[in-house]
Amino acid sequence: MKKLLFLIVLALPVCGFAQKKGKGGPKVFDVLIGTYTSPDANGSRGIYVYRFYAERGELAYLSEIETSNPSYLAITQDYKYVYAVNENNPDGSGGVTAFKFDKATGKLEQINTQKSVGSPAYVSVDKAQKNIFIANYGGGNLQVFPIGKDGSLGASTQTIQDSGTGPDKLRQQQPHVHSTVLSPDDKYLLASDLGTDKINVFRYRASKTPPLSPATPAFTSTAGGSGPRHSDFSPNGKFMYNVQEMTATITAFSYDDGALKELQTVKMMPDDFKGINGAADIHVSPDGLFLYATNRGTANEIVIYAIDQESGKLTYVDRTKTDGDNPRNFVIDPTGNFILIGTRARVNVFRIDKKTGRLIQNHNRSVVMESAVCLKMIPVE
């Protein structure tokens, strides 16, 4: 099932291509794919590793490891360790698991697991590899776990419980922390709370215990009922973009030493859209020229914007349907040539027109993959 690949890909000498480099760095990457493993996920077992050839947009299966509902992944700066949330029910069974990653073989080896206070949906790791940060969507809090010298996770050193509600009586009766994103300089942590329409900002000091403290101001609000979900920074660190799940809107902020200032909010859908929204993920292209965001619900597409390099504001470019519904997380390869998008049934591969930002789908390069919900890349050297 996971190994339904093209014979031309499998016939290539993987090790030979793993050593190939060209201008601008590696052209070969390992793609780590987190999935949902619940009974309705049609047989996914955990985390899958594929090799991606960025000059051709091709994927080749490498390995897999079993773990429960690894719906979001984080990778250390040295690429030696991977952390996966176990997004189980908020009954004490949720947690986060540490893995060792072997770049030579593309295989993962489990190190240990720590329990979470709620059902986690996101994990990030600092550049110094001192701590990881998880967002417990179920539970409405974020947690900090220290990293040992061997990559293992220690017991949580800090739990920050959010409070409040939003205007949506069905989905915002309590906090739902959905992401924990570090600023480019690792001085701040920005946590989007879908349940309270807030982006909470914390000062991060890796040498302190606990390492997080409220910034000034301590939060920035988005529109009532919008449901902030994920964020990404521009490469120059001057702008941050937040996608709001419930209204399928994107807010552009200027960013300066932990302070956010709203510049613009745009709708992802046309005015005549009558369907269901479920905006999910957001990323800026490596060159900083374009922004991409996925919308699930009945839209099932990725929307493209051009970024004004002076103001940081967005201009609509195009929208592209995905092959398969429920497009959640996606990754742009560091060469800027391809986007890989996880959907309910497969991983889509799109080629990027670097001049326009528009996407061209490579249907014959997609891979069958049930409930692919998180994709991360590691350069192969």
UniProtKB/TrEMBL annotation:
One GO term of the biological process aspect: glucose metabolic process
GO-annotated molecular function: 6-phosphogluconolactonase activity
UniProt entry keywords in alphabetical sequence: Carbohydrate metabolism, Glucose metabolism
Domain of life: Bacteria
Name used for this protein in its record: Lactonase family protein
Species: Mucilaginibacter corticis
Keyword Translocase: no
Family label: Belongs to the cycloisomerase 2 family.
Pfam families: Lactonase
PANTHER family associated with the record: 6-PHOSPHOGLUCONOLACTONASE, 6-PHOSPHOGLUCONOLACTONASE-RELATED
Residue ranges of the region described as Disordered: 213-232
Record's GO cellular component terms: cytosol
